[in-house]
Amino acid sequence: MATIKDVAARAGVAVGTASRVLSGSPQTSPDSRSRVLAAAAELGYIANGPARSLRRARTDVLGLLVSDIRNPFFSELAHAAEQEARAHGYTVILANANEDAAQADAVLDVFASQRIDGLLLSPQGPKTPRLEALLASDLPIVLLNRSIEGVDAPLYGTDNAGGVAQALKWLQRRGHRDVAFIGGPETFSTGAERHDAYLAGREAHGICTDDALVDAGDFLADGAAEAMLRILDRGALPTAVFGANGQTTLGAMRAVHERLGAEAASLIEFVSFDDVEWFAFMSPPVSAVKNDAPEIGRAGVRGLLALINGGTATSQRIATTFIDRSAGSAA
Amino acid sequence: MATIKDVAARAGVAVGTASRVLSGSPQTSPDSRSRVLAAAAELGYIANGPARSLRRARTDVLGLLVSDIRNPFFSELAHAAEQEARAHGYTVILANANEDAAQADAVLDVFASQRIDGLLLSPQGPKTPRLEALLASDLPIVLLNRSIEGVDAPLYGTDNAGGVAQALKWLQRRGHRDVAFIGGPETFSTGAERHDAYLAGREAHGICTDDALVDAGDFLADGAAEAMLRILDRGALPTAVFGANGQTTLGAMRAVHERLGAEAASLIEFVSFDDVEWFAFMSPPVSAVKNDAPEIGRAGVRGLLALINGGTATSQRIATTFIDRSAGSAA
DNA sequence: CTGTTAGCGCCTTCAC
DNA sequence: GTGAAGGCGCTAACAG
Fold first, then answer.
1. How far is CA A126 from the centre of its chain?
2. Which of helix, strand or coil describes residue B282?
3. Would the CB atoms of A54 and B54 count as touching at under 8 Å?
4. Are A88 and A305 in contact (CB under 8 A)?
5. Which residues neighbour B144 within 8 Å (Cβ) at sequence distance 6 or greater?
6. Which residues of B280-313 are buried (b: 16+ CB within 10 A; e: fewer)?
7. Do B91 and A69 touch (CB under 8 A)?
8. I want to staple B154 with a disulfide (CB 3.0 to 4.6 A). Which of A199, A224, B313, B322 is the partner?
9. Each residue's pLDDT tens digit, A229-274
10. What are φ and ψ of residue B97, in 5° steps?
């Protein structure tokens, strides 16, 4: 693989000149510029990133740590973040933590070793040792989606209260009184915020305040199914179910189908925080609060780049959109 | 950030000794070993990856280029590939090409600059200039999911013929004769293979061979919807529809619902190449050929690592599983 | 505007 | 088993 020395030799200039031309420094004559560029093209020269990173003490690489890339929310977010970063000349290294603190720490070590210029973090739970170390260092960090206690990095996330309000309004418009709410873990800020917003708003929207109708899972399908079964076991028969995220809605629906059968299930309307295209074809169709995952990813990258460039970044809540697929709706 | 020099000084040994200890060389005394390790821990030492890469002329980084990370198939594949790579001490850089050759080339440049040790590639279309250059170099490469003309790198992908055969058997068992098939682009090997397997096998499974029932989209929902409409416009009224991938099934279903209404749509059974959990709750439930995306990702990484280590790798077709959700089925 | 050179942090050979 | 030193490819500082 050709080095800058080869390029310089072929162009008949010194390495310094070649370096200046290739990194776009203005201090170069048109003559050497064209000769260096030509030589580089002929040799198929591609700069050695590690060498450049070593010398410049920066890598132009951002680390993105998500809890589970298979979650559509995160895969859309990651996609958008990568696009935004590349538009600014940065590369993104993506890693999963699998909702596991030990894996998260292993990944953070890799990131540290790679000397990433900044970290986009969607935290799993409480602070881990590696994370503490990173926070103590001067590595620029922004939080995505979930906040974490004792960390004051800027947060880019969904407007959970706003999203729940949209769902509540829809429930009221549809005339639902007996609504089951399946939340997520209180230890996740997203779980807590959605839960709190629901409890705070239900009465004003004409929804029964019996807490027998409220339970929580773990934001995964199985946990949500169990929560739904607990509600049914208490003798409640809701006319609508509100799932606090996509997997939760899936689990709740599975529980309802298995316990009550498809026919009875079709009498229950589901609303979901997190939208899925297939909702249009369920019976009845499922309406949903749609997260703007791409915008969260882009805003997070912009904030992080501001931090990297010595500026400041402020937390941002990205608005949700309500997708109404109920019978009477225009769509 | 602490360097190996700091560690050596604190441990009272030479940098060479520190390096040997930290990289697990056996030629170290227990004494210096423990002192170096202690010093490293106290300093929170994490080796500088770029410096190490520069010196060793390898990075322990693999590049993974997929056409669209938002596609669940690829997000699962990427997740598994990353896990497998990490288990072997490698880091994965993930990038999207957005089904766009120019973006793919931009990404390949970044990969080349990062001096990745190997490339996992899910090609979009024909060879691009950058890809040609990479193939000409001695960079180890494996193909994922799709093959590409004129490239003889090992391919790790779905057993398309086997998957189609599973669907055909199911269609026969369900007694369907008038089956619509919505394929993907012939320019993708996956599209061509599924299409060919369907045409070759339909007659033997008692399915009508009228080509008015066959059309192709672009593996995206909109294109598939248009293909479905073309079939309906020809006056055909299938009792079952076979979508050649997940988005295709989505588009076909949308077209059927919009054109015929929900009631008539519920008389048509859908089968899909690519499984989605929500299929269980459609009416009627959708059966599907489930790709083993995680295994494809793992096998690809294993093959690539074999190549990197100077061994050989052979193409592999990963078996599919049929998920039968039809009325009479046990599930 | 250009050439020369030091040195980023690490590994590895070469002596001892 | 250990210390000393060179050099990977690049950029930036310094002369000219």
1. 18
2. strand
3. yes
4. yes
5. B66, B77, B120, B121, B122, B155, B156, B157, B296, B297, B300
6. bbbebbbbbbbbbbbbbbbbbbbbbbbbbeeeeb
7. no
8. B313
9. 999 999 999 999 999 999 999 999 999 999 999 999 999 999 999 9
10. -110, -10
Return the residue of A nearest to B276 by Cα.
Answer: A278
Joined together, the tokens standing for residue A310 give 């010595």
Residue B194 corresponds to which tokens in the numbers above? Answer: 């599924």
* Chain A neighbors of B109, CB-CB under 8 A: 46
The ranges of chain B with pLDDT < 70 are: 330-331
Do A277 and B49 make contact, defined as CB atoms within 8 angstroms?
no
Task: Tell me which amino acid residue A123 is.
Answer: P
Contact A324, A170 (CB under 8 A): yes
- Is A121's pLDDT higher than 80? yes
Give the model's pLDDT for residue A98: 83
The arithmetic mean of pLDDT across residues A320-331, rounded, is: 84
- Residue B43 near chain A (CB below 8 Å): no
> Tokens representing A303?
């904030």
Asked if the Cβ–Cβ distance from A50 to B69 is below 8 Å, we say no
Quick one: tokens of A148? 């974490």
What 3-state class would DSSP assign to A241? Answer: strand
Q: Which residues of B touch A276 (CB under 8 A)?
A: 278
Residues 243-302 of B with CB under 8 A from A: 250, 253-254, 257, 262, 266, 276-283
Q: Which nucleotide is nearest to A20 (CA to C1')?
A: D11
Beta-carbon separation of B257 and A51 below 8 A: no
* pLDDT (tens digit per residue) in A4-35: 999 999 999 999 999 999 998 888 999 999 99
Closest to B324 measured CA to CA, from B252, B291, B251, B275: B275
Tell me the C-alpha distance between B129 and B110, whole Å: 14
**Per-residue confidence at A331, pLDDT binned at 50, 70, 90?**
low
Is the CB of residue B82 less than 8 Å away from at least one CB of chain A?
Answer: yes
The structural domains of chain A, ordered by start, are: 160-291 (3.40.50.2300)
Per-residue model confidence (pLDDT) at position A179: 98
Helical (H) or strand (E) element with B210: none
Asked whether the whole model's pTM tops 0.90, one would answer: yes
Q: What pLDDT score does B25 carry?
A: 84
Judged by a CB distance cut-off of 8 A, whether residue B3 touches chain A is no
Chain A residues whose CB is inside 8 A of the B68 CB are 79
Query: In DSSP terms, which residues pair with B271 in a beta bridge?
Result: B242, B287
Bridge partners (DSSP) listed for residue B64: B94, B120
Residue B320 neighbours by CB under 8 Å, 6+ apart: B158, B159, B162, B163, B166, B289, B290, B291, B292
Question: Given the DSSP bridges, would you call strands B287-290 and B321-323 parallel, antiparallel or unpaired?
Answer: antiparallel
Averaged confidence pLDDT in chain A: 95
